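hi! just following up on the protien thing from before. the input was this:
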Amino acid sequence: MTAVNPLLILPFALLLCAMAFGPVFVPGWWARHYAKVALGLGAVMAGIYFFGLRDFASLGHAAREYFSFITLIGSLFVVSGGIEIQVKSDATPSANVIFLLIGAVAANFLGTTGAAMLLIRPWLRMNRNRPAAHHVVFFIFLVANVGGCLTPIGDPPLFLGFLEGVPFWWVAKNCWPLWVTAVGLLVALFYVVDKLHSARAAGQPGPDRVSEQNWKFDGLQNLFFLAVILAAVLVAHPVFLRESLMLGAAVGSWFTTKKSIHAANGFNFHPVNEVALLFAGIFATMPPALAWLQQHADSLLGRNPSPGILYWGAGGLSGVLDNAPTYLGFLSALRGETGVTDLPSLLDQYPAHVLAISVGAVFFGAATYLGNGPNFMVKTVAGQQGAPVPSFVEFIWKFSLPCLLPVLMLVWRFFFYS
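and the predicted 3d structure came back as:
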């Protein structure tokens, strides 16, 4: 394998910095020009790979991965936008906790992306009378990430592990104590934060209060299209059949959904357009960073890495790189380091190491908007709905470090400390 020039990682680093600091320091300029920045840097890297390195395989792989990613995200966005779930407003902290727990469980059957796209709008409606940034952030923590670690359907890294040969029920059997710990700690922390916010909001003037006394579900034919998408995720061959099924479900949903439902959901294509443009740049500039990680995994991890090292290593990089390829990179590094290439043997001899990589990739995917596919989509939908949404830096500084990091440290201390 040809060594990766570290300079090739520069466009990816520049894009991450632009996404982090552009909305903070030059919000107006960023809103007008983010597409040019993302596509421009992506085009530079694509040109280097095509004309300079002549590495058509890596470029084609990145293109296929992006197409699959945006097809899944886009189809789920369209289908979930055709399901109207009206809920009672004035949600109490206890009701919010129950909703988040339901979402965390649902993420294992609908996937974190499916659960997040289906539930974000009713979640925002529940809290429209006292909107707060922590509602968006803890939804990302629990529904879009941590909640989905019990099945291969739940989160993309675990699904890739399943395709590699990890038995379906191995995940639930080994991950459930960590799931209970992380979800329990995050829910308890959310309850405290939301209880304090509820007490403050009670004594302050707020938006005109809305009260809906009855639950309402409409557009339920879209549950069929949602099932088609989730079934399509398991389809590997022939090429592009999976994506064709997803696109067909999205088209069917669009033409069978009443316009009144789209209007009630405030549905338009701006959120998915923004995600498509930004992640086009990410997928185009990310290959050198992933290749460098694979080439230097041994030197980064050291000889005979402990499960704790793998947990922090796979997790830390999953927060800034997409967690699915990071998972594969560390799984490959573990195989190379141990000399055990057969996955069943690896699971038998090094179960704690594989578990550390799996849980690290899933849990740390919640650390930034870039860690997992649905994170940025939730941010965009919530912002369009008028909810307070922290910037990239605020997300990390105000929530990931003080709220998520202690939970991740306790998971490490309870399960991977040695």
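The chain has a mean pLDDT of 89.
The two ends are 34 Å apart (CA to CA).
cheers
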